[in-house]
Amino acid sequence: MLDAALRERIDAFVEHERQASGIPGIALAIVQLGSPTHVRGFGDDGRGEAISADTPFPIGSLTKSFTALLVRQASDAGQLDADAPVQRVLPWFRVADADASARITLRHLLNQTSGFSRDDGIAPLLQGSTASIDELARGLGAVSLNRPVGERFEYSNLNFVLLGAVLQTVTGRSWQELVQDQVLHPLQMDHAYTDHAAARQAGMTALHRTWFGLPVAQHVTVPPGFAPTGSLVASASDMARYLQMLLAGGMGPASRVLSADGVAQMLSPASPPGRSRLLSADFLFRYGEGWFVGPFGAAADARWHLGNLASFAAWMVLLRDTEQAVVVLINTNTELPFNEVNAVMSRLPIGVVNLLRGQPVPQGPSLRQAYLPFNAAAALVVVGLLALAWWAARACRARWSLGLLVVAIATVIALQAMGLNAAILLAFAPDLAGVLAAALALLCMPSALLVWSWARARAGGSSASIRQRPP
Questions:
Q1: Tens of pLDDT, residues 335-353
Q2: Which of 103, 138, 155, 359 has the highest local Cβ count within 10 Å?
Q3: d(CA 55, CA 47)
Q4: Given this model, what pLDDT does residue 405 score?
């Protein structure tokens, strides 16, 4: 049970990690079915306002479970069959492979086994898409699947974009109306919103990207078409009510929100086993319907999900054997692929779960400590390349200048081969993008100065010839 002493240990752990890593604000909720919920905030929203139980946070991909719940509600009402092909509801639905288009079912979308790739699922976000849910779904005709339909799990936002289009078509209502009327309102989630714009007006926390270990405020927008996959905003108290309903088998405060069978379907492992590294933590899992199923810290059989961008992280964990649930919302993040700098973002929810199980919390450096080697390496690279570029340019050493240019070109090619183009780097690791941009500019500078000197010499020679030409 969650007694006062355990609550104090958990709160002390969260606050220690927050302060050590320089995280502006965290919201925590711990649900124990049949007992009062422990909900509190730590730190501030980045504008000087203290984080409270009711401070709205973006929850990113935790939204997927809400969309899955809407699908299960429609199934309970006889409007949808999870095993029906998508084309039964959306006759116009196509991907590049016509045969595969006909074989993708709603269950494949729910279980993330359709064959859509993770990269194609991120593309609209990187491109700043303004397409609606239906427009994004109708634009998939040129998308190639990454593997045969149903073969194995691959996480892709496109699966839940399509589910949003299915829901809108079969109900004749917008996804926003459905989630508001059928989930948020019945569960009294009074500080939850279907988009960031409305949430900001209602006091949503500021969000922060981490630059060289320091949080910097960052405005975040989510493409309209991503609403069913990642647009929701909710407070810790709101998410506690949502998880309490699931622990209660679908019963809300005043009425049933979903059938017990619908809840069981959502939380049942369905995909083949998978493995993923999320915020520097390794997870083994199978995917249900908007939920990962598998070990989470000291819990051998949890249901959980992560929602995050480079400026926030949101976690929810269901511990059905002890009838408990955990919510951790964080208003900063980093995706820098170096020295596990974002390990604290996963250590927080894992640590809370471990404490609930009477186990020690995971250990590791704070975000600030983990950033120190990166900051030192970045400074050495920039200073070293600046000295080398100055030396090559000052003496007009053509071979060195061309050699540095070749290194710059090879670096760009290598980054592209690893899938790290400029858009991805700027979106997920802006500090690394800045260091790489500075390094590439310094590598190219001697060649640019060499060309400029050569052009000036040519121009000067031409001017002298003109002046010396007889009348």
A1: 888 889 999 999 999 999 9
A2: 155
A3: 13
A4: 85
Residues in the chain, total: 471
- pLDDT (0 to 100) of residue 468: 54
CA-to-CA separations, 166 to 138, 173, 221, 222, 431, in angstroms, rounded: 11, 11, 24, 20, 39
The pLDDT of residue 397: 67
Using the structure block, give the residue that is written with the tokens 């929602």. 307
Tokens for 458, please give them.
């040519």
Question: Is the CB of residue 364 less than 8 Å from the CB of residue 14?
Answer: no
- Quote the DSSP letter at residue 226: G
Q: Are strands 274-278 and 233-234 parallel, antiparallel or unpaired?
A: unpaired
Q: 118-126 and 157-171 are packed helices; what angle lies between their axes, rounded to 10 degrees? A: 80
Mapped to the 3 state alphabet, what secondary structure does 189-215 carry? Answer: CCCCECCHHHHHHCCCCCCEEEECCEE
> Which amino acid is it at 229?
T
Write down the residue that tokens 């634009």 correspond to: 139
pLDDT in tens, 266-277: 999 999 999 999
The C-alpha atoms of residue 58 and residue 235 are separated, in whole angstroms, by 8
220: helix, coil or strand?
coil
Residue with the bigger pLDDT between 265 and 417: it is 265
Band of residue 84 on the pLDDT scale cut at 50, 70, 90: very high
* Among 90, 122, 117, CA closest to 106: 90
CA distance 352 to 340: 20
Q: Does the pLDDT at position 367 exceed 80?
A: yes
Cβ(100)–Cβ(149) under 8 Å?
yes
- The span from the CA of 143 to the CA of 140, in Å, is 5
**Which helix (H) or strand (E) element contains residue 400?**
helix 398-417
Residue 438 has pLDDT above 60, yes or no: yes
The residue among 105, 69, 455, 466 whose CA lies nearest residue 245 is 69
Read off the tokens for 348: 């927080």
Average pLDDT across the chain, whole number: 93
Give me the amino acid identity at 320: R
- Looking up tokens 């929850």, which residue turns up? 59
Name the token pair of 385.
Answer: 């390349």
371-390 pLDDT tens trace: 999 999 999 999 998 888 88
Residue type, 261: D
Torsion (CA) 462, 465, 466, 468 in degrees, nearest 10: 160
Q: Would you state the pLDDT for residue 460?
A: 64
End-to-end CA distance of the chain: 104
